[in-house]
Amino acid sequence: MYTNDDRAVRIAVFMLENNSTVRKAASVFGVSKSTVHKDITSRLKSLDKPLYRQIEKLMEINKKERHIRGGLATRLKYIREKEKD
Fold it and tell me: Which residues contact 47 (CB under 8 A, 6 or more apart)?
């Protein structure tokens, strides 16, 4: 296992390498979305400023795109339901 500080850095690197969302990172690391958010906004800021700045940019992009992803997920859900019928 790893410490909270290690986890914060690992999550940040994962998110940047995979252009990931908080939700996806939480799923991969087996922690809650709240934990991921705290790790990358609070812990990471004091651990690695350059990495924090990169994550901050990714988070801003994700925030701007979330309405699109949400609509897409809903659309796909209804397509799958229709295919079952």
Answer: 5, 8, 9
